[in-house]
Amino acid sequence: MSTDIVKPLAELTDEQFHKIADFIQTNVGIKMPDQKKIMVQSRLQARLKALKMDTFDEYIQFAFSDGSSSDEEIALMIDVITTNLTSFFRESQHFSAMNDRILPELAGRGFEKIELWSAACSSGQEPYTLSIVMSEFIRTHKSSIGDFSILATDISSRVLEKAVTAVYSMEDIGDLTYDLKKRYFLRSKNAAEQKVRVKPELRGKVKFERLNFMDNSYPIDSKKHIIFCRNALIYFDKPTQESVIRKLVDWLVPGGYLFLGHSETIFGMDLPLVTVGPTIFQKNSEE
Fold this sequence. Notes:
Helices cover 41% and strands 18% of the residues. It is built from ten helices and ten strands. It has helices spanning 14-28, 37-50, 56-63, 68-81, 92-108, 125-140, 157-165, 178-184, 200-203, 238-250; strands at residues 113-118, 147-154, 167-169, 185-187, 195-198, 206-210, 224-229, 252-260, 273-277, 280-283. The strands form two sheets. It has a seven-stranded mixed β-sheet. A three-stranded antiparallel β-sheet has the order 3-5-4.
């Protein structure tokens, strides 16, 4: 008979939670209301186990200390706490608007290469969807647009690693048409795995980088025609939302387009944007 004693899971006190929550809001911009305490406790218990720690006091002292190991832990903490939910062609009306109105409009202005930014790309479904939409537009339309590139950024290193591999389940692409599946995905040679991978020609159009919206400036190398930043700002308070959107808009070309999530708004914000569709905004053209 085993005499091993199973240690109870560490519990997060209100004071400890508020210290973590304040850090996350200050450095990442995500609000952590009190009702998130149990979620944070549950997710961080795995970090305590990995570090062989018994209490959250130990963990907080380690994570918030000076040193390279604590920097790594902070990044892991953010990865664990940050929720990443996405899918191919999520909020499909945005991609319909791109194909039917926005890309023809940009083509009419003579643009030959479209630069896009998926600013909260999570595990890659959004930027690869953008790559599919652009590829399909170029394939089926005779216009000035003949090339494109996509920058995809996220604060979570963990989801960026998954995005770079571009491997998804058959269920992930279940809603795509047969033609799109055949044209842009490769099935695993192991049929039992039920996995697919985005084709190299699509992956080659996307560059992944880590980026924190709370940074004072964004190290982007060129202005974008289209920026998607969907369902990330809902975690921020209003002043932070406006600050982030202003920095994003700085990287739009005059007349470029910003897409936000279905529950996000710029109402009450002083921004150089006009609404052109549901959560679709166009940057004012410069005189």
